[in-house]
Amino acid sequence: MRKLVIGETMPSQQSADVTDWLDLEQLARVEMTSEDAAYPIEAALTAEDDTGWRASMPGTQTIRLLFDSPQMITRIQLLFEETLQQRTQEFVLRWLPAGTEDDREIVRQQYNFYPAGNTQELEDYSVSLQAAIMIELCITPDISGGDARASLAQLRIA
Asked: Using CA atoms in the order 19, 152, 92, 68, what is the torsion angle rounded to 10 degrees?
């Protein structure tokens, strides 16, 4: 029998469990198409920094995490922020299982940013990726073109 005294919290309902997030600095190599020196990729991958990553040039950008050994991935969380310009962003999230050559799409999503209202997009995916050796994020910062630069406030993987 499972029981709970009212007012107590079940272990699975406790506040943010930072210990579940993978230490990406230790477990993976990162590749990207560009990087603004003031907003390095490490800033989006670690909890110690809240500046996030930003591309050094406009257009579609790719961030690729290559794991040193296959990982079981159960959750992927992405946080995007845009406070300056109205735009429609699209991103594609893919993964590559060990022993295969073709990546697999997890999700393709578009989001509208409005500086006067919608300035953040938080995506939190429950997944079951067995023996993942690569996670890839492709960001098109403005599907209508223009000079918008891709950015990523945070990427966390468990």
From this structure: -50
